Amino acid sequence: MELLKNKIKQDGIAVNEHILKVDSFINHQIDPVLMQEMGKDIAEHFKNRNVTKVATIESSGIAPALMTAVALKVPMIILKKQPSKILNQDLYQTVVTSYTKETNYELTLSKKYIGAEDHVLIVDDFLANGEAATAALRLLRMSHATIAGLAVLIEKSFQPGHEKLISQGIEVYALAQITEMSENHIRFKD
Amino acid sequence: MELLKNKIKQDGIAVNEHILKVDSFINHQIDPVLMQEMGKDIAEHFKNRNVTKVATIESSGIAPALMTAVALKVPMIILKKQPSKILNQDLYQTVVTSYTKETNYELTLSKKYIGAEDHVLIVDDFLANGEAATAALRLLRMSHATIAGLAVLIEKSFQPGHEKLISQGIEVYALAQITEMSENHIRFKD
């Protein structure tokens, strides 16, 4: 998506090989017009997949997932983080290890909101190592829902997340794919 | 706002005097059409206040704040939570004590994104004790921005948040005001 690539070129900050700061339009300050356009683009891409729910991971995926859900006119589900394991029979639960933040947390989903009849599109801001996305997949599989795909705003294609997901048969759609990054330098695919 | 009051009557669950569950359309599962209508309503109410930024508190305020920012066509700022105090000279920082969750966290705002020239509308999902809203106010005052007001989806008018805020001269706009609550019983203002 050219709109996002241009915004990243203009306002994104490549700190080093691994860290891309997009604080000024995606993470901390949000450009609502850009976010709306990105949601429409994702919705357009998945429009023939019979998507019944959009799911995302708390909290930086909420904005793009909401704009996608608005465009698809389907409910959106926030997979909630909780700090420690509190067993609850009304929830699907899975533990996520975040290498970037060096923490563990639990991701939860109420059994009420997603079932075997659903086709779920997962939306998140970033795909890098794929930890959050694979945890979301684990949760959604517990519900026996069909996974329509994963859409992310920015993919760091040089990290293993993309491969990990497509090797499980998941379609990954990224609005911007970064193939190489270093201080003040970003290279996109294509 | 009748649309929200009717939704609360239909799908909200009053557990006791203090706990209202709106998991099925606001907190865990989100109804994007309702969220969009609520954002438009808030934007309409504050349309003559010269709002330049919408601010919210991570993470349950993100959805209503984003829909308000879309309607007002202004940037949205997520005041970020961090678990403990890490001093950073690029941030405004304040500690929040949550009585409901019995935890402390720090709320932060990058100095880059809000300044003295801004008119900021704070948007959140709930107003009860007003802890989060007053913390947001403290942060925004550090930036010397003008506070355009506070908009919330649901106000528990029998808790002290509303009074606390209006006594500081802040306009509070709530889409649904609950004056009384007990198990399976909710009374609205008007």
Features:
alpha/beta; Rossmann fold; 190 residues; 36% strand; 31% helix
Description:
- 2 copies of one chain form a homodimer.
- With 190 residues, chain A is α/β, with parallel strands linked by helices.
- Chain A has one domain (2-188): Rossmann fold.
- Chain A is 31% helix and 36% strand.
- Chain A contains 6 helices and 11 strands.
- In chain A, helix 3 (32-45) packs across helix 4.
- The interface between A and B is medium-sized, with 29 and 29 residues.
- Strand 5 (76-82) of chain A pairs antiparallel with strand 3 of chain B.
Explain briefly what this protein structure is.
With 190 residues, chain A is of the alpha/beta class.
Map the helices and strands.
The structure is a homodimer of 190-residue chains.
Chain A: H1 2-11, E1 13-14, E2 20-21, H2 23-27, E3 29-30, H3 32-45, E4 53-57, H4 62-72, E5 76-82, E6 91-98, E7 103-110, E8 119-127, H5 131-142, E9 146-156, H6 161-166, E10 172-182, E11 185-188
Parallel strand pairs in A: 4-5, 4-8, 8-9, 9-10
Antiparallel strand pairs in A: 1-2, 5-7, 6-7, 10-11
